[in-house]
Amino acid sequence: MKRRHFIRGLIAAGACPICTKTGLAGAHWTYGGEAGPEHWGELDPDNLACSAGMQQSPVDISGDIEADLPDIALGWKPGRGVMVNNGHTIQINMVDGGTLSRGEESYELLQFHFHAPSEHSVRGQSFPMEVHFVHKNPRTGSLEALGIFLVPGRNNETFRQLAEAFPKEQHGEASFNKIDPSGLLPATLEYWLYAGSLTTPPCSEDVVWMVAREPVEVNGADIDKFTAIYSMNARPIRRPNRRFILTSD
User: Whose C-alpha in 2, 57, 69, 245 is 20 to 30 A from the C-alpha of 169?
Assistant: First the structure.
């Protein structure tokens, strides 16, 4: 019973109390070699959490605990967005992208971006791609990120539209008058929850992660369009360090 009360307290805490950075550190970094993930903490003093942090992301989702998690309520809007090849991924910056609510707090959708292969894994299994939707609480500045696995299967019209416009060159951009991020949602939003970090420098530990349990099917040829640009842009799995990973029941 004490453990269950502790878990409820963790849920009630919601998001981390501070969030000072949502962008990337200034030092050049990569996904391999001397500037790769195992060296991020050495590249810039602002990146110290990448090597010394105890709540780093991504993690392997295992040993999860069933809990009475609040439902995710999405108020995402089809709207304008700017797609950017930032040298590390393809990112879509949203203009008034709508909101995500979980419990009493509401978060604004700032951007979403892609990783191949998936950064999170489930009981040792990774997936071909993962999309991260990054939200910020306008009142507290805290971040909540929703991760969704992408797997080859039937055509997904939203992903097809994005894939056709992926900028191949670094710093290339493409604008959309109307993009609907809801097209990348699974049929159900059961999810895992844990306290973590940005998965890129500066690896700030100010992110509450929700990872959808149901993957989304997209056309395999559209996955190939992403991996032709970024064949590997996933940070390796980090240690859980006795963190609780909760699952909606």
Answer: 57
d(CA 24, CA 43): 12
**CA 17/CA 198 separation, integer angstroms:** 15
The domain spans of the chain are 56-248
- Of 136, 131, 137, 135, whose CA–CA distance to 158 is shortest? 131
Q: Which H or E element spans position 63? A: none
Topology of 56-248 in CATH?
A: Carbonic Anhydrase II (3.10.200)
Tokens 């993962």 locate to 130
Read off the pLDDT of residues 130-174 as tens digits, 9 standing for 90 and up: 999 999 999 889 999 999 999 999 999 999 999 999 999 999 999
Assess whether pLDDT exceeds 90 at residue 237.
Answer: yes
| HEC readout, the chain | CHHHHHHHHHHHHCCCCCCCCCCCCCCCCCCCHHHCHHHHHHHCHHHHHHHHCCCCCCCEECCCEEECCCCEEEEECCEEEEEEECCCCEEEEECCCEEEEECCEEEEEEEEEEECCCCCEECCECCCEEEEEEEECCCCCCEEEEEEEEEECCCCHHHHHHHHHCCCCCCCEEEEEEECHHHHCCCCCCEEEEEECCCCCCCCCCEEEEEECCCEEECHHHHHHHHCCCCCCCCCCCCCCCCCCEEEC
